[in-house]
């Protein structure tokens, strides 16, 4: 019963937040800080409705370099609400082009200055990637990427795709990993208190001076650090339960 009530409230909230986000985007279209404001608009009420307690330790994200590539593990659609509490200033996201057809959210995502990539068209995808490189180098804006490319549904971290690392090396900006504990299988949305979630950001990993030949080692280093962090957070939560 509680689960159904929460899903009803979340559906209403999603629509209301979408309308407000679109209005914000119309008032200041493509402003790179729209994403942060819209993320809070979705996340803060949702965390209250879902009764998920999110504890964060994200000093390296809060004090990030002006431009960087932020990479995070991707578990479920709830990531929109979970990570929304920590999206930093002037940070946009990369998403697939099909998102623009999602009513309200798609238009909000576009107006917020996020980057839509047509993965089925290699030429258009390359143009989008070149645009993000220019953004990183010249517009004091960071890019948030889920390098797994799809949701892992609470299983182990999936292999990383190259896009985020190509961008970081091409622009010469650091990579800031952000990790969330394995929450999707542990949260109990039919209980009043649904569970605890931990989010940690890791120290920036520099890419200045690296070439595309260094990319496999960079990817492996980032993935290993994130796996270690996620496992550590899961141990902390299991010990406390």
Explain this structure:
- With 241 residues, this protein is α/β, with parallel strands linked by helices.
- The chain has one domain.
- The protein is 46% helix and 15% strand.
- It has eight helices and seven strands.
- Strands 1-7-6-2-5-3-4 form a seven-stranded mixed beta sheet, with helices on both faces.
- Strand 3, helix 5 and strand 4 form a beta-alpha-beta unit.
- Helix 1 runs antiparallel to helix 2, helix 1 packs parallel to helix 5 and helix 6 packs across helix 7.
- The two termini are 24 Å apart.
- The relative contact order is 0.17.
- Keywords: Acyltransferase, Transferase.
- Its EC number is 2.3.1.51.
- It is an enzyme of class 2 (transferase).
- This is 1-acylglycerol-3-phosphate O-acyltransferase.
Q: Distance between the terminal alpha carbons, to the nearest Å?
A: 24 Å
Q: What spatial order of strands do you see in the largest sheet?
A: 1-7-6-2-5-3-4
Structural class given helices, strands, pairing? alpha/beta
Strand content: 5-15%
**Largest sheet composition:** 7 strands, mixed
Number of domains: 1
Return the string of H and E elements. HHEHEHEHEHEHEEH
Annotation field: number of helices: 8
Q: Roughly what percent helix? A: 40-55%
Looking at the structure, what is the overall shape? globular
Give the integer mean of the pLDDT values: 90
Low-confidence stretches: none
Tell me how many strands there are. Answer: 7
Rg to the nearest angstrom? Answer: 18 Å
Organism: Pseudomonas imrae
EC number: 2.3.1.51
Protein name: 1-acylglycerol-3-phosphate O-acyltransferase
Keywords: Acyltransferase, Transferase
